Amino acid sequence: MKLQIFVQDCAKIPKDKQCPSGTGPGWVCCLDCKNITKTRWDDPPYKINASGLQVPIGYKTIATSAVHYNGVLEYDAHSIYGFSQAIATHKALQGLEGKRPFILSRSTYVGSGKYAAHWTGDNQGTWEDLKYSISTMINFGIFGVPMVGSDICGFYPAPTEELCNRWIEVGAFYPFSRDHANYYSPRQELYQWDSVAESARNALGMRYKILPYLYTLNYEAHTTGAPIARPLFFSFPDYSECYGLSTQFLLGSSLMISPVLEQGKSQVKALFPPGSWYSMFNMTQIITSEGGQYVNLDAPLHVVNVHLYQNSILPMQQGGLISKEARMTPFTLLVTFPAGASDGRAAGKLFLDDDELQEMKLASGSATYVDFYATVSQGTVKLWSEVQESKFALDKGWKIGKVKVLGLGGSGAPSSLEVEGKPVTSASNIELSSLEQKYITNLRSWR
């Protein structure tokens, strides 16, 4: 349910007038609105720059002198009204369905992230708002609202075809990903343009493959408060060059998104912190930097640059048209070591449950949690895991079907592979894939 009150203090339906009009635009009020109250609650001594216009505090909302149940003033309750609705709705849905609710709210307050997802409001279909969507998403993650995203392609006005291409390439990696528009705007479903549909298949196809990783990040957010989408400095706090960066972001600690945010561009200037970064769309490509550097990346219309950092183990599946279909496909572990290193370590994690339990938690028979570890030494790759509550995953028949190892020197092929202390042979059920990397650039420290 979406409830909006964009009227001033008092409103009534005019006589012999249809409301809403049915012709739009959707954000223009068709009620008669008069400002009839001027108490100290409506015009307090402390002034705020409401709407950037220095208008009264009750502008386009309920009068702040209005009284709620039990004598509570709107002045005191305004910021927590939506928060209270989210809590009540969450409790009600749990009681009615006995399942984990999904609640989406535009109105949030401190603590809202425990009960509801958030979309960032009626952002415009402009290049400027596309760029702002990243910093807004990052900020809300820090505020404790990890499931967040903007209206892909913009709420209004109608986006251009190029803008919608670029927006789905970013929005596919929002924690909350949704194409949404004003009722009176021209249709902007992703299939309305052939070019946008192609970009959507590329970007959303990758999202569905990394759903195990995204779901694990949701579990981490639930148990620790860590954001899903993060600024680069979360993983690279000693690299000051990324402190003010808001045109790229990380999913978790190691998956970096570097989108095109400007009209007419077919390249993107992306910052790469020190280390080895592997392209998710072409795993033979690697970018290495000893001290961090900006790199100009090719980004034609249907391409978004997504890179995985060294020392990572990324759990993936094969994707599908719907998430439940994707969840039943075999798992792949993507292991990344520092490029060309003779010795290295990597780690990752995976949380699995049936996604409908009221709470994300480890419990016998209803969830499984896995820590993955890998090392490489003198060409020998060792991979092992530590599993908590294995019964759920085993009962589902979920197994690792493939291991991809990136960053090995020479031809890219390991001399041997051990899984859980046992050598992998041609008769094993696990398929090993190793690729020889092509260095896009080999950069030294920032100048």
TrEMBL record:
GO terms for molecular function: hydrolase activity, hydrolyzing O-glycosyl compounds. The keyword Thylakoid does not apply. Residues 64-217 form the Glycoside hydrolase family 31 TIM barrel domain. SUPFAM superfamilies: (Trans)glycosidases, Glycosyl hydrolase domain. Keywords: Glycoprotein, Glycosidase, Hydrolase, Signal. One of its GO terms (biological process) is carbohydrate metabolic process. InterPro entries: GH, Glyco_hydro_31_C, Glyco_hydro_31_TIM, Glyco_hydro_b. Residues 225-314 form the Glycosyl hydrolase family 31 C-terminal domain. Belongs to the glycosyl hydrolase 31 family. This is ALPHA-GLUCOSIDASE. It comes from Salix viminalis (Common osier).
